[in-house]
Amino acid sequence: MKDNAIVFKGTKEGLYIVLKEEMNFADIIQQLEIKIKPSKSFFEGAKIVNFKGKSLSLKEYNELVDILQNQYGMQFLGDYEALCSNIAASKEEEKNQAKLEPVIKQGQGDEEKAVFIRGTIRSGQMIRSEGNIVVLGDVNPGAYLEAAGSITVMGKMRGTGHAGTQGDYSAYIAAFRLEPMQLRIGDIVTRPPDGKQYKSKVPEMAFVKRGMIIVEPYLGKR
Q1: Pairing of β 144-147 and β 126-129
Q2: Which residues form the Septum formation inhibitor MinC N-terminal domain (predicted)?
């Protein structure tokens, strides 16, 4: 059995016990003993937030909680419903990640190059294009879009967008809901005022005018 079959992941709330999906229940119990028993005094009194990584039946869940609390003296803070919710959220994220791929790479000419993304762009993800970027979904805070051309988001734009990366000040950034962490066109940058969260109520477009980034209702630019 590999050493990382069970991993203890620390957070400010306590420890998560990450279980490999392919492990059977007997192996989980065996590995817990191998991991914890030699250092029982270290783990005694530790706060366990919950399990992660593997679906468990309610019976299996309760048996593991009983072992951790009664055999090893740990404090268990989680519940079965939270585990199921986390597993479902992880599977949904994997599903969305699988959808996160360019469905059209480029057009005939350089001016028509575009990357189309179907799905949510999540925190930590970066999308680059030598032309335009079109997102059929939301862009979450912490996500980054970088396009030599323009950026269009058919959902909420709450991340960072950089259009006109090669100095094209005619580029724009448009979204159904434009609520960015930061916008940049060429080398011109704008961001919401400190401590304030900008909320749009209509589709909007950001573009350069008189050396500044201006945001106006998108329909007003038609």
Answers
A1: parallel
A2: 6-74
